[in-house]
UniProtKB/TrEMBL annotation:
One of its GO terms (biological process) is nucleobase-containing compound metabolic process. SMART domains: 35EXOc. This is HRDC domain-containing protein. It comes from Candidatus Ornithospirochaeta stercoripullorum. PANTHER family: RIBONUCLEASE D. GO terms for molecular function: 3'-5' exonuclease activity; nucleic acid binding; nucleotide binding. InterPro entries: 3'-5'_exonuclease_dom, HRDC-like_sf, HRDC_dom, HRDC_dom_sf, RNase_D-like, RNaseH-like_sf, RNaseH_sf. It holds the Pfam family HRDC. Residues 208-289 form the HRDC domain. Gene3D superfamilies: HRDC domain, Ribonuclease H-like superfamily/Ribonuclease H.
Length: 290
């Protein structure tokens, strides 16, 4: 599959001139979400303008945030499938908003289809993609150069989006759902408030106020070590240990070590003092709350 590789501001700005002359473009992302290294990262932007494929490489040292902002703010309609996680990533990493998004998943859901992109394409376009999905979903999108198989997988996500948009728009009109879709589209493409990451801890909603204090401080300790080693936080300490420690609140180093038996030697000597420090802070904060 041929594509134009945009790995510098200059190349991106030239492509923006082309995109500006289009009515719409199909867009998708590939990202890194604490799978191979610490944190969340935008790794690839795939684009199809109805004629040619493009890839923006935000990992390139020659691509600036300003160039990405120029692309995201481009007035041309950007056709997406399920833009919420991608919008959240751009907002979280760069503090940017993606403008003029048309999310075709909104139409699919309105028509009663809640599956992923491949399922919706199969239903409405009779397209079955043979590129292995699971293998590429778990792939490392940070490495360079990317294997051609991964690039082909990424581009498939934008290949049929414009055609899918046409079919879904026609189906929505046939059912008289335009007004309902408009409201749902506005809701789906709005920038969502970013909740603190520790609120994603397992069982957070069931915790009482004091348990949440401890869970937050334990999360901070684990995150500090993950950031130090540039590894996913789950490599440092399994996530189920956060609520367990928040409930048990070990009072001695010996008790704490018992809970951390699964933590590797690589991390334990750094994690242990970090947890002791944060648990002390949690004790003080909890005492003020009581």
């Amino acid at each position: 599959m041929d594509y134009v590789y945009l790995d510098s501001d200059e190349k991106i700005e030239k492509a923006l001139v082309v995109f500006s002359g289009k009515k719409r473009i199909a867009v998708d992302f590939e990202g890194e979400f604490n799978l191979h290294i610490y944190g969340e990262h935008l790794c690839l932007v795939q684009i199809y303008d109805g004629t040619d494929f493009y890839i923006i490489d935000p990992r390139s040292s020659d691509v600036s945030v300003k160039a990405l902002e120029h692309f995201f703010s481009l007035p041309v309609e950007k056709v997406w499938f399920d833009c919420q996680s991608d919008s959240a990533l751009v907002n979280k990493v760069y503090g940017l908003k993606i403008c003029n998004v048309f999310d075709v998943r909104v139409l699919a859901k309105m028509l009663g289809y809640s599956g992923n992109l491949k399922a919706v394409e199969s239903e409405f376009l009779s397209i079955d993609n043979e590129i292995p999905k699971k293998k590429n979903q778990q792939a490392n999108w940070l490495k360079r150069p990317l294997p051609e198989e991964q690039i082909a997988y990424a581009l498939e996500d934008v290949h049929y989006l414009l055609e899918l948009q046409d079919v879904l728009v026609a189906a929505v009109k046939a059912k008289g759902l335009e007004k309902a879709v408009g409201h749902a589209m506005h809701k789906a493409t709005a920038v969502k408030k970013i909740d603190p990451p520790w609120t994603k801890t397992s069982g957070w909603k069931r915790m009482d106020a004091v348990e949440k204090i401890y869970a937050r401080h334990i999360w901070i300790a684990r995150d500090r070590i993950a950031r130090r080693f540039n590894v996913p936080a789950s490599w440092v300490m399994e996530k189920h240990l956060i609520p367990a420690l928040a409930q048990s609140r070990p009072r001695s180093e010996a008790e704490l070590v018992k809970h951390l038996s699964s933590v590797s030697d690589r991390f334990i000597r750094f994690l242990l003092p970090a947890l002791k420090e944060e648990l002390k802070k949690a004790d003080e904060e909890a005492a003020r709350k009581l």
